[in-house]
């Protein structure tokens, strides 16, 4: 709060300075009025952008402190291949392909992404984004902090979060002007747990039975996984290739939108590719996510992991 108040004071000082500078330039350099106006607009936009960015970062830091506080101890601390003996055959192939016996259990993940995001299904334009994500697996949670460029120099800041069984979604232009906000609804909470679960391909030890996941056989190329956190349950069907790697996922029903106070659910799907070895685990570095409409899948996310760091149980 002190930081935000300080920034407000600085913004006021800089705004007065910019106005004074513009007036001085208009008299001393005899610039045309339109040039002075453009200079003032650019200066004020730069100030507002810096303030919004720093204010958003301040809130992000607070959120992530809450995410990492009071973490619980994980057991077991390493993967034992004996625990997968009774799992469906394609799931066994998956763990044999992505983990080695004795792999330490992941407790925290920090990653960076870039890619394209589809903001509106009524248009075809994709917008560039960059994001960081923090995931904790001791008490299940994550925070996706993204900046989506809607026009040059103007970003929408997005937090997509799951913490202590509660989902939170915020979107703000320049980090200052809220355009979307949802918190702790039944549909949102379940949807955010689905996201945590589907993205466990980046932290595959979280898909082990010892971490609370129940696997159900479907056929030679797919299995259903179910995870419960507090009073929320999420189920995802994973598809495997011949090597055992997860290549796609599908959740039968995730909240798509709210119309007239009623939630509309739709199948939620994703694809994974470009597997690479990171800290002894094989994970996909590229993926895409979308909604399965009756007429076909409509993607809204295409992203690539550019950096990933892990912490492990010890």
UniProtKB/TrEMBL annotation:
Top-level taxonomic group: Bacteria
Transmembrane segments: 7-27, 33-52
InterPro entries the record matches: DUF6920
Keywords assigned by UniProt, alphabetized: Membrane, Transmembrane, Transmembrane helix
Name the record gives this protein: Uncharacterized protein
Lineage, opening ranks: Bacteria, Bacillati, Cyanobacteriota, Cyanophyceae, Pseudanabaenales
